[in-house]
Amino acid sequence: MKRFFLSIIPVMLFAISLITCAYPYGSVNSDIVHEALHARTMAVTPCVPGWLLDMEDIKPLSDGELYHVRAILHRSQVREVHEKYYRDDQQSTGNIFYLYASNGQCLGGKVEGNRVMMDDLELSDEDSTLLYAVLRPHLKKLFPRIP
Questions:
Q1: pLDDT tens across 38-51, in order?
Q2: Which of 31, 55, 71, 113 is the most exposed place for a label (fewest CB within 10 A)?
Q3: CA 143, CA 136: separation in Å to the nearest integer?
């Protein structure tokens, strides 16, 4: 029996690496976006892992704000973003934040002027401006210099 398990380990490792290679690194899929948008609550946070956040870094959305954020993001198309986008220093400077969901999923975004651009969602110009308007009170606390 032990010999069987030892012989299957290389096969399992190969299968895992094949699955990992087939999935575009960095990109989230529509299931993850769906899961994030259907979380019970959501907050605006700095762009750091959840376990490093201080309580004052977490800006919870009200029920009304969450309703509007969901409506806006549901209209958006999920796009494939390559891993290098997330690691490119030129791309990742500035007013970057997460929409952190209570189920552990998060969606990255960036403030550009009076618009919010989401990493994994293609927003219309109008929706980018609307999302900024909804999130502005929280973003202003994270980034005091935004308009």
A1: 999 999 999 887 78
A2: 55
A3: 10
Nearest to 66 by CA among 12, 125, 131, 111: 131
Tell me the whole-structure pTM to 2 decimals.
Answer: 0.75
**Three-state secondary structure call for residue 47:** coil
- Residue 24 identity (one-letter amino acid): P
Strand ranges across the sheet with 59-60:
59-60, 42-46, 95-101, 106-112, 115-118
Q: Confirm if 58 and 100 have CB atoms less than 8 A apart.
A: yes
CA angle, corner 56, sides to 71 and 132, nearest 5?
Answer: 30
Q: Which among 71, 140, 58 is positioned nearest to 101, based on CA atoms? A: 58
**Nearest alpha-carbon partner for 139 in 128, 67, 6:** 128
C-alpha dihedral (93, 23, 31, 33), degrees to nearest 10:
0
pLDDT value at residue 133: 98
- What span, in angstroms and rounded, lies between the C-alpha atoms of 97 and 111? 8
54, 94, 82, 79 alpha-carbon torsion, rounded to 10°: 90
Averaged pLDDT, 95-104: 92
